[in-house]
Amino acid sequence: MPSSLMKDYFLRLCFILFSGILIISCTGLHQKKSAEALQTDSLINHLYPAAYNNPDSVLKVARSVYPATNESNNQAKLLGLMASAYELMGNYDSSINVARQGLALIEEDASLEAKLYNQLGVNYDYKSDYRNALENYQIALEHFEEAKDTLGYVKGYNNIAIIYWNSGDLERAKDYLNRCLEISRKKKYADEEIMTLSNLAGVYNELKQSDTALLYFQQILRSDLAGGNESYIASSYHNIADTYKNLQQFDSAKKYFEKAIALKEKLALKGSLSNSYKQYADLLIETNELKLVSPYLEKAFAFSRETGSTDYLKDCFYIQSRLAEKQGDFKTAYMAADSFHRLEDSLSNTRFRTELVIKEKDHELAAGRRMREMEKAEFKTEKIIFILFIISLVIGAIVLLILFKRQKLSNRQLRQQKQQIEEGLVLRSQLLSFIAHEIRNPLGGIIGLTDLLLSEKPTEKQRELLDYQKKASTHLLSLMNDVLDYQKLGSGKLELNNIGFSLRDVLYQVYALYQNDIREKKLSYDLDYDELIPQALMGDPVRLTQVFSNLLNNAIKFTDKGTITISAQLITKTVHEAMVYFQVSDSGVGIPKEDQEKIFELYVQSSQNKSAQLGTGLGLSIVKNLLTLMNSKIELESEPGFGTTFSFTITFRIAK
């Protein structure tokens, strides 16, 4: 037997033995988790979401519970909750002090340390102290890495991206955010995906790509409204207003700023309110409504000073200078401009950027050192295991020799069986293709002759028989085409074309193919087409028609009354690409839950409506494979008696 195989057997034996010892020793530790720890975790899990909408009340609850808490880690968790509430209220200095108290209490909990360092970074970020913000974010990243907390790691990268954004390095910020978006989608972190999209939209705003930013922010608002978190909704209102302002659509901007301010005032979000007040004041200057500016600017000044946000205070002086200049008060304009420039100098990013690069390199070197230490430890462990393996090799030589001979015989038999199966599959595939081609040609002739006979004014009885013959022949021809298509898909010979086409035309052509069937069953048909979809796209219109034809045919077949709807909605659009979301819905019999995964398999049909002519069982399998070639995936929602909806998303290149 090869030495690698023998080593594998021994490693498995050692792993089982050590795992058993580890499980026995750890079981007692888990049982010792106190009732207080469980109660604290439960309380914090309930209070954290509530803090976004009512931070003051959450702070009071955490303070009342803290004196009765004895375990240091539980105390640190409660202090972390208080720090978060203070931050949401705009009291950043109190948040920093409380978070530092929590760090001093922690005992061997990397995940908790990471969260508190991250909280410190957020507060320093709001105070425009980017150096301290970055330092705490990077320490948080190291602890998230130690705790193997991927979710925390994504949040940490998001925060560092915001630092680059604030420092003016928009391209690097975009790189970090795209990395966060990739991990969030891969791990299905819905909240982090929305947060990252929001930050990306902000970066696109600063890159003067406000159309793209607006699409992102509108998508985020829909998600926030569905979730019901008022703090998130207020933030989305502000972001959309700011984007409309960049697009110089001032009426829309005013409407959304007013919504944001009303909701933030209700929630008493002081730090966030100062930003909305100053932005709204700046908008009123743009629209020349100078008499309305002062109340909002005064509130922005007050909250910026109260929360210690130097960045917001700097912006307030700039807006005050603009207002005074427009009002002809040049003395005030000069003084405000002077204050603005002094704060601008104090926030200079030249030194910060240098430190940023150095700190990033230091972080990478530290990660490299940890990796080398881990490799050394692994090498020592492997050396010990190898010595034990040599000792055991002498004892187990006879047993391993027998196992090797048996394995060799078994492998030979498996190779022979595999070869026979592969040869059989090739023969079957060739035979199936040959039969399909040979049947398809005469079928075309039969259908053509039937059409000729129908045009010769047959009797009513003859017409009935000829209609039946044509339908049967057409059905059989469809079966042959499906078989040939599936053979091409299975063998990998089917290739998609990439030509310019009109998506609207494709969907109308699909309806034209089936309009007689829809009328015969007296069904309603609705095409919901988003006018924002570009007129010319790149793709394979023939295969796209085949996808919608199969889905529409299924919908007609299983719907006796009601409505069939095809929907095409634009999700996002860039200069080169458009992402479109499709739905094909019907009000038919529906598909039982136990059949929903099976119906995409070859030759499988739904157990519903057995009396109907159900077809070949190939259609949905072909649809699934064609969408896979288009880098898409079909989704299904259905309930017996309430209809079925198939949906998928395709990204098209925009034709020039």
Write the layout of secondary structure elements.
Elements: H1 3-31, H2 35-51, H3 55-65, H4 72-88, H5 92-105, H6 110-126, H7 130-146, H8 150-166, H9 170-187, H10 190-206, H11 210-227, H12 230-246, H13 250-267, H14 270-286, H15 293-307, H16 310-327, H17 330-346, H18 350-395, H19 397-454, H20 460-491, E1 499-501, H21 503-520, E2 524-529, E3 537-539, H22 541-557, E4 563-573, E5 577-586, H23 619-629, E6 635-638, E7 644-654
Parallel strand pairs: 2-4
Antiparallel strand pairs: 1-3, 3-7, 4-5, 5-7, 6-7
Brief rundown of the structure:
It contains 23 helices and seven strands.
Any overview of this molecule?
- Mean pLDDT is 80; it is low at 1-7, 9-32 and 609-614.
- α4 (72-88) packs antiparallel against α5 (92-105).
- The protein is α+β, with helices and mostly antiparallel strands and 656 residues long.
- Among the domains are: 1-32; 438-491; 499-654, Heat Shock Protein 90 (2-Layer Sandwich).
- β6 and β7 form a beta hairpin.
- The chain is globular.
- Helices cover 73% and strands 7% of the residues.
- The chain contains 23 helices and 7 strands.
CATH architecture of one domain: 2-Layer Sandwich
Hey, roughly how much beta strand do the residues contain? 5-15%
Largest sheet: 7 strands, mixed
Q: Can you tell me the residue ranges where pLDDT is under 50 for at least 5 consecutive residues?
A: 1-7, 9-32, 609-614
And the CATH topology of one domain? Answer: Heat Shock Protein 90
Query: What is the helix/strand order?
Result: HHHHHHHHHHHHHHHHHHHHEHEEHEEHEE
Q: Would you tell me the overall average pLDDT? A: 80
Overall geometry comes to globular
Quickly count the helices. Answer: 23
